[in-house]
Design brief:
The complex is a heterotrimer. Chain B is built from 15 helices and 15 strands. By secondary structure, chain B is of the alpha+beta class. In chain B, α7 (about 350-355) runs antiparallel to α8, α7 packs across α9 (about 385-395) and α12 packs across α14 (about 460-475). Chain C is of the alpha/beta class. Classes of the chains: A alpha+beta, B alpha+beta, C alpha/beta.
Chain lengths: ~90, ~500, ~475
C-alpha cells in the first residue's frame, strides 16, 4: 500500500499502521455482514447529471506566477529529476 | 539481445503457417475550442506552460466542468462508428507520473459513452468491431535533457509542459479483428477519414492529434485461440504502424519457433532502429485503483440531443465513396475503385463530384485529383471546384494536352488562379489540328523505317511518334489527337 | 478591549453601513486582540493584517461614495486554511504546502469579500482537514478558548476557536464528517454544514470530494444564517453545485416551531455522555414548550455511518492527495530520481494521520478489495440515506447530540485513532446522505465546557433547520464561563 501511495515507512511505523488499520478495518466488519444486495452504490449524494460548460475560452494563468511556486523550473517548464520508465 | 536477429524491414512475406491478430487503440484529440474540463485553449504549438489554469494544472481546490462540445464531438464519433450511445460516468485512473497534474487521469472506465460499434474497411471489405469509444483527458508532455538525444533513458532530468494536459481525447478501441499490418493501416486510414468527415478531429498524426497503440499477438494458421499479446506504443505514423506490427509479429513467431514464450508486456517502437523493445519494467505492478470521479456527475445524453447530433454529421466516407462510385458503372473493385478510396481518404471527393456536376469528365477528374492534387494536398484550399472543372474540361476538349494540363494544375494549386488564365500565361494555347498534322507529317518523313514498322502493326512505336511530335511542338500538341492522326495515316 | 469586539456580524454590518463605526476601527480592534492573545490559542496560521486594513478602508470608501458595501460590510471573518486565497499562503496545515501562494481564490472567499467582509487571516486545522481535535496540524494544536488545556475540536478548530474567542465575528470552515459542527459544539458556537451542492467547493482543497462542504461559524444562529446566504448559490465552476436558488433564511428565523415535527434519533443518544444526553433532552423539551411535536425516532442505519465513512473518505482522499508530489508546487525533497523524489517528498511532507488515511484509502480502492470495501461502503451509504428518508417521511427535522462528549484534553485521544474517529459518530451520517445539519450551543456541562445540539434536516431543509436552531438558541442556558482572555 505504501508503495502505491508513494510513501516510505520505517519498520516501527509499519507495525503501528498495520495495527491501527487492522483495528479500523475490524470496526468496519459491522457493515460487511449487512445484506446490501438490493442496493445500488451511492457514489454521490446528488442526483445531478449532464452538467456542462460552454466551449468558450477563458484566460490562462501567468506562467511566471505559476512557475514561481514550482520547486524547480527551466526554460518555462517544470523541472523534475530523471524519470525511470515511460508512462504506463 | 534476440531482437536484433529479427528482420525489421516491413511486412511483406509474413511467415507462412502463422496468422497475426491485431487490435488497435486510437487516441484522437477532439477539435474543440477549449480543453475538456476548463476554458484553456485547445491549441497546438504554443510556448510551454502558457495555456494552463488551476484546473488543467490540477492545483489544490480546482474542479473540472465538462465541455459540452467535447461530449457532442464524442457522440458524433460514436454515431459515425455505429456505436450505441448511452449514459456513462467518469472514473479516476490513479498512477503517479510527472506529466499528469493530478496524478490521476479522468477517463471513462466502466461505462463508456459509445459502445459496440463497427467500422467497414473499404478495400478489404472487412467489418471491424469497435468495442468502445470513450472520453478522457490528455496528459502534459516532457522533454528529456542530457543523455542520449532527448530519450528518457539516460537523461539527467526532464522538463514538463502542461499545455496539452486536459485536451479532450476520445479513445477508440477496436476488437482484435485485424489480421495484417495492411489491414491495420487501412483501419487507421478509414478511421481518420471518418473523424475528419464528422469534423470531430483534424486527424493529424504528425501533430499527435491521432495516436495509435497496437495490441499484437500471433497464432498458428487455423487456430481459434489467441496468443499472448504485446501492446506497442508510440506509433506516430502509418509507416511506423505497419512496420512495428510486422516486426512485432515476426518477433513473436521467432520466439515461439525457438521454443520460448511470448511475455505479455508493453513495448515501445523505435522508429530509427526499426524494432520494438520492452518498456522498462517498474518496481511494482500497476494497480490503477479506478473509482467514480466524485467531482463530476453522470452523462445522460437525451435521445433528442443524440438525434440532433446525428442530423448534423456530414457525409461519412462510406457515403462519399458511394457518391463517387455512382458516377461510374460497376467499380466496386479495381483501379478506379482504389482511386475512389484514395480520393475520399484525402478529402478530394467533393472536388471530383463538383467537377462532374459541372459537366466535366468524372474519370479524368478523379485521375487528376488523386494524382496531381493529392501530391500537393496542402494547397487544396486554393483550388475551387469551378477552376478544377474548367481545367478538366479544357483537357478533355483537347485544348490542353495531358502534360500541359498537369503543369497548369500545379500552378493553379500554387496561385489559386483560373485554368484558362494559367494556360494563357504559360503560352499553352492548344495547337490547331492542321498544325499538328503538319508536324505529324514532318516526323513521319524524318523516320521512314519506324513508320514502316508502325504501319505493319508494331503498335508500341506510337509512343515514339507522339514523343517526336511533342518535342517539335514543345509539348503543346495534344497526345490524343496525335495518336488518332497516326492511326488514320497508317490505314 | 475595543467596543466592537464581541459584536455580532449583523450588528457590525449595520453599524458600519450606517457609518456609526468605521470598518477600519472594527478591523483594527479585532487585529489588536488577535495579536495580543492568539499566541495562547494558536487559532490563526497567518494573520493578514495589511490586507485586512486595506479591505476595511475599501469598505469605508464605498460607504463614503454612497455605494452598497454589501451584507457583511466591515465584518471580520476568519478563513480556514484549506480555502485557497490568491497570493496569500494556503497550507492546509501541512508541511507539503508550507509556502504555497495560490494564483487564484476560492469562490466562497470571493463571495464573502464582495459582500464586504474583512478577512483577518487563515485559521488552523487538522492537516488536510483530517482529524477531530486540530492536534494534527503540523503547525501546533489550537486550544479551546474556554480551557486552554482542552482541544477546540476539529478539523476546523482554528475557525471555531477564533469565533468563540471573539477574534472574528464569523468564520468559514469545511465539514466532511463533522469538521464544522463538532468544533462548534466544543467551542460553544453555531456551526452549519449545508446541503451538499449548496455552497461551491471551487477553491476548497479537497479531502473527500463527495462529502466536503464549506459552511459558516458564528456566535448566533442569525449571523450563521446571514453568512450562509452570502456563500450559498450556484457556481458554474463546480459541477456538483445545485442550480436551485437558496431560500431566505434570515427572514424565516423567527417564525417559531409551532407544528414542526421533531424526532430525537435514539441511536445517537446511546453513546453520549450523560450530561450531553441531558442537555439534548432539555433542548427537546424547550422545543416542545414552544409548540413543536417532539418524539423519539429510530434511524437504525446511522450506526453504520462511521464504518462506511472511514472507507469512503480515505479512498477519495488517497486520490485527491496524490497531486502533492513535489513537481508543480509545495514541498520537494529531492531523491536520485523521480520516484524517489515522490516518496521522500510525500513521506516528509505528510503527517501521521494523513499517511494513515492515504494508506487506508489506497487499500480500500486496491484491486481485490474494491468491491468488498469501497463498493460495500457505497451501498451502506445508500442504506443510510434510505433510513434518513424514512425518518423524514414523519419528521421535519431530527435532533441528536453534536458530539458524544464535551471538549477533551489535549493528547487524550491522540494515540488511538479509532477512539478519535468515534467522536464524529453523530455528525458523519449526514455527510454520507448529503443532508444539512448544524450545531447550536446549549449551555455548559458539569465540567464547565460547552455542549452542542445537532439539528438535522432533509436535503434543502435549511429553512426549518434554522427555525429550530433559533428556537433552541432562544431557550438555551447562557454560557456563563469567561473566555481565557476575559
Amino acid at each position: 500500500m505504501a508503495n502505491l501511495a508513494k510513501l516510505s515507512l520505517s519498520e516501527e511505523e509499519e507495525l503501528m499502521y498495520t495495527d491501527q488499520l487492522g483495528a479500523i478495518l475490524d470496526h468496519a466488519r459491522d457493515i460487511m455482514s449487512l445484506d446490501t444486495d438490493d442496493l445500488l452504490p451511492t457514489a454521490h449524494p446528488l442526483e445531478l447529471k449532464n452538467v456542462f460548460r460552454p466551449d468558450v475560452e477563458t484566460a490562462s494563468l501567468d506562467r511566471e506566477e505559476v512557475l514561481s511556486q514550482a520547486p524547480a523550473s527551466e526554460d518555462g517548464r517544470f523541472l523534475v529529476p530523471r524519470i525511470l520508465g515511460e508512462a504506463p | 539481445m534476440a531482437d536484433n536477429s529479427i528482420p525489421s524491414d516491413g511486412v511483406e512475406g509474413f511467415l507462412p503457417g502463422w496468422e497475426m491478430v491485431v487490435g488497435l487503440e486510437v487516441h484522437c484529440e477532439l477539435k474543440t475550442k477549449t480543453k475538456l474540463f476548463c476554458g484553456c485553449a485547445n491549441s497546438f504549438g504554443q510556448e510551454p506552460n502558457t495555456n494552463i489554469c488551476p484546473v488543467c494544472l490540477g492545483l489544490p481546490g480546482s474542479l473540472p466542468v465538462i465541455n459540452e462540445q467535447a461530449v457532442e464531438l464524442a457522440i458524433r464519433i460514436g454515431l459515425s462508428l455505429n456505436c450505441t450511445v448511452d449514459k456513462s460516468i467518469f472514473h479516476r485512473k490513479n498512477y503517479f507520473y510527472p506529466d499528469m497534474p493530478k496524478d490521476y487521469q479522468v477517463s471513462q472506465y466502466e461505462k463508456a459513452i459509445n459502445e459496440n460499434g463497427i467500422l467497414e474497411l473499404p478495400l478489404s471489405k472487412k467489418t471491424v468491431r469497435i468495442e468502445r469509444a470513450h472520453i478522457e483527458e490528455d496528459t502534459g508532455k516532457s522533454v528529456h535533457v542530457g543523455g542520449d538525444g532527448g530519450r528518457i533513458h539516460g537523461a539527467d532530468h526532464s522538463l514538463v509542459d502542461y499545455n496539452r494536459a486536459g485536451i479532450p481525447l476520445v479513445e477508440i478501441v477496436s476488437a482484435p479483428d485485424l489480421r495484417s499490418a495492411e489491414e491495420a493501416r487501412e483501419y487507421v486510414t478509414e478511421l481518420r477519414s471518418i473523424l475528419v468527415a464528422s469534423a470531430a478531429s483534424d486527424g493529424k498524426m504528425e501533430e499527435g492529434s491521432l495516436r495509435v497503440d497496437a495490441n499484437v499477438s500471433v497464432r498458428r494458421q487455423g487456430s481459434e485461440e489467441f496468443g499472448t499479446r504485446c501492446e506497442i506504443k508510440n506509433l506516430n505514423s502509418l509507416r511506423s504502424l505497419t512496420r512495428a506490427i510486422g516486426y512485432e509479429a515476426r518477433r513473436q513467431v521467432a520466439l515461439i519457433e525457438a521454443g520460448e514464450r511470448v511475455v505479455q508486456q508493453t513495448r515501445h517502437w523505435n522508429e530509427d532502429q526499426g524494432i520494438t523493445s520492452a518498456m522498462r519494467s517498474k518496481e511494482e505492478a500497476y494497480d490503477y485503483r479506478y473509482f467514480p470521479e466524485p467531482d463530476l456527475v453522470p452523462l445522460e445524453p437525451s435521445t433528442e440531443w443524440i438525434s440532433e447530433i446525428r442530423r448534423h454529421i456530414g457525409l461519412l466516407p462510406a457515403a462519399r465513396r458511394e457518391r463517387l462510385t455512382a458516377l461510374f458503372s460497376d467499380v466496386s473493385y479495381g483501379p478506379v475503385y482504389d482511386q475512389i478510396v484514395t480520393a475520399v481518404g484525402l478529402g478530394l471527393d467533393d472536388l471530383v463530384v463538383g467537377a462532374a456536376e459541372n459537366g466535366a469528365d468524372p474519370r479524368l477528374a478523379l485521375a487528376r485529383a488523386t494524382n496531381e492534387v493529392a501530391s500537393d494536398i496542402g494547397n487544396l484550399p486554393r483550388l475551387t471546384i469551378e477552376n478544377f472543372s474548367g481545367l478538366i474540361k479544357l483537357e478533355s476538349q483537347s485544348k490542353l494536352s495531358a502534360t500541359q494540363a498537369k503543369t497548369v494544375l500545379g500552378k493553379m494549386l500554387e496561385s489559386g488562379a483560373d485554368a484558362a488564365e494559367v494556360a494563357k500565361s504559360l503560352g499553352f494555347e492548344a495547337l490547331d489540328s492542321t498544325v499538328i498534322e503538319d508536324l505529324v507529317d514532318q516526323v513521319i518523313g524524318a523516320s521512314p523505317k519506324e513508320w514502316e514498322r508502325f504501319s505493319s502493326g508494331e503498335d508500341q512505336l506510337a509512343g515514339f511518334f507522339v514523343g517526336q511530335v511533342m518535342k517539335l511542338s514543345k509539348g503543346k500538341a495534344d497526345g490524343k489527337i496525335v495518336t488518332s492522326l497516326l492511326r488514320s495515316k497508317r490505314s | 478591549m475595543g467596543s466592537t469586539v464581541g459584536l455580532g456580524a449583523c450588528e457590525i454590518a449595520e453599524l458600519v453601513s450606517s457609518k456609526e463605526i468605521s470598518a477600519l476601527e472594527v478591523a483594527e480592534e479585532h487585529l489588536a486582540l488577535i495579536e495580543s492573545q492568539d499566541a495562547n490559542l494558536n487559532s490563526f496560521l497567518q494573520l493578514s493584517s495589511s490586507a485586512a486594513i486595506a479591505a476595511a478602508k475599501e469598505v469605508d470608501a464605498k460607504i463614503a461614495r454612497g455605494e452598497d458595501p454589501g451584507r457583511l460590510a466591515g465584518v471580520p471573518i476568519a478563513l480556514k486554511d484549506n480555502l485557497v486565497t490568491r497570493g496569500q499562503t494556503t497550507t492546509c496545515a501541512s508541511q507539503i504546502l508550507k509556502e504555497w501562494k495560490p494564483p487564484y481564490s476560492a469562490t466562497v472567499v470571493e463571495r464573502v469579500s464582495s459582500a464586504g467582509a474583512v478577512a483577518m487571516g487563515k485559521t488552523n486545522l487538522d492537516e488536510f482537514a483530517m482529524g477531530s481535535s486540530t492536534e494534527n496540524s503540523s503547525f501546533g494544536p489550537t486550544r479551546n478558548p474556554y480551557d486552554l488545556n482542552r482541544v477546540p475540536g476539529g478539523s476546523s478548530g482554528g475557525s471555531a476557536a477564533a469565533v468563540a474567542a471573539k477574534f472574528a465575528a464569523l468564520a468559514l470552515g469545511s465539514d466532511t464528517g463533522g469538521s464544522i459542527r463538532q468544533p462548534a459544539a466544543l467551542c460553544g458556537i453555531v456551526g452549519v454544514k449545508p446541503t451538499y451542492g449548496t455552497v461551491s467547493r471551487y477553491g476548497l482543497i479537497a479531502f473527500a470530494s463527495s462529502l466536503d462542504q464549506v459552511g459558516p461559524f458564528a456566535r448566533s444562529v442569525k449571523d450563521a444564517a446571514l453568512l450562509l446566504q452570502v456563500i450559498a448559490g450556484h457556481d458554474p465552476r463546480d459541477s456538483t453545485s445545485l442550480e436551485s436558488p437558496f431560500p431566505d433564511l434570515v427572514s424565516n428565523l423567527d417564525k417559531g416551531v409551532r407544528g414542526l415535527r421533531v424526532g430525537i434519533i435514539e441511536e445517537l443518544i446511546e453513546g453520549a455522555a450523560p450530561m450531553v444526553g441531558e442537555a439534548l433532552m432539555a433542548s427537546a423539551r424547550s422545543l416542545s414548550d414552544q409548540g413543536a411535536k417532539v418524539e423519539h425516532v429510530s434511524v437504525p442505519a446511522v450506526t453504520y455511518g462511521l464504518s462506511a465513512y472511514y472507507l469512503i473518505a480515505p479512498a477519495e482522499a488517497s486520490s485527491n492527495l496524490a497531486r502533492y508530489d513535489g513537481v508543480r508546487y509545495g514541498l520537494r525533497v529531492d531523491g536520485q530520481d523521480m520516484n524517489e523524489t515522490y516518496v521522500s517528498t510525500r513521506t516528509q511532507g505528510f503527517g501521521a494521520e494523513v499517511k494513515r488515511r492515504i494508506m487506508l484509502g489506497t487499500f480500500a480502492l486496491s484491486s481485490g478489495y474494491y468491491d468488498a470495501y469501497y463498493v460495500k461502503a457505497q451501498k451502506v451509504r445508500t442504506m443510510i440515506s434510505d433510513s434518513f428518508q424514512n425518518a423524514y417521511d414523519r419528521f421535519d427535522v431530527l435532533l441528536s447530540p453534536t458530539a458524544p462528549t464535551t471538549a477533551f484534553e489535549l493528547g487524550a485521544k491522540a494515540s488511538d485513532p479509532l477512539t478519535m474517529y468515534l467522536s464524529d459518530v453523530c455528525t458523519i451520517p449526514t455527510n454520507l446522505a448529503g443532508h444539512p445539519a448544524m450545531s447550536v450551543p446549549y449551555g455548559l456541562g458539569e465540567n464547565q465546557m460547552p455542549i452542542g445540539i445537532q439539528i438535522l434536516a432533509p436535503a434543502l431543509g435549511e429553512v426549518n433547520m434554522f427555525r429550530v436552531a433559533k428556537a433552541i438558541e432562544n431557550a438555551a442556558p447562557a454560557i456563563t464561563k469567561g473566555l481565557f482572555w476575559e
